[in-house]
Amino acid sequence: MSEQQPPSYQPPQQPHGDQRYGGAPQGRPVGDGARPTATDDLSPADQRLWSTLTHLAGIFLYVVAPLVAYLVLRDRGLFVQDQTREALNFQITSVILWAVVGFLSLISFGLLSFLLLLVPLYVAVFSIVAAVKANNGERYRYPLTLRLVR
Q: 44-61 and 115-135 helices cross at what angle (nearest 10)?
């Protein structure tokens, strides 16, 4: 037969933050619908590395690399969150610039097509500058960039 427990007895419950049971890490909101805030899961050196790689990958993959990096790394540290967001905003701006320059080239019957050569140069130069700054641990802001992702 079973032993009766006093009426005030409640079985022990596992805290929300216990990693062993798939709970959310300590300090993050659980189940309230709010996006978790960035925690410093990555070391400062790793945050600088990922920020640098995100800026450089934008040269070749444009908006795809910063978008993936932002979605994956935004909650891993404040520095990497800031720099991946900045790279994503810059690449979105560069895609818009490609469209504008392409349209201008089209309506000018090719007279402004030389501008199509300047866009990749613009992207490469500023992405390299941003990568060097990020590697040094400095927050970089691209000039003439729309801040669409906040």
A: 170
- C-alpha span between 47 and 44 (Å, rounded): 5
Residues whose CB is less than 8 angstroms from the CB of residue 145 and which lie 6 or more positions away in sequence, other chains included: 86, 89, 90, 93
pTM to 2 decimal places: 0.73
Tell me the per-residue pLDDT of 32-57, one tens digit each, with 9 for 90 and over.
Answer: 455 556 677 899 999 999 999 999 99
Cβ 77 vs Cβ 38: under 8 Å: yes
List Cβ neighbours of 88 (8 Å cut-off, separation of 6 or more).
63, 66, 67, 69, 70, 149
Would you list the domain boundaries of the chain? 44-135
- Greatest Cα pair distance in the chain: 93
Q: How far apart are CA 148 and CA 86, in angstroms?
A: 10
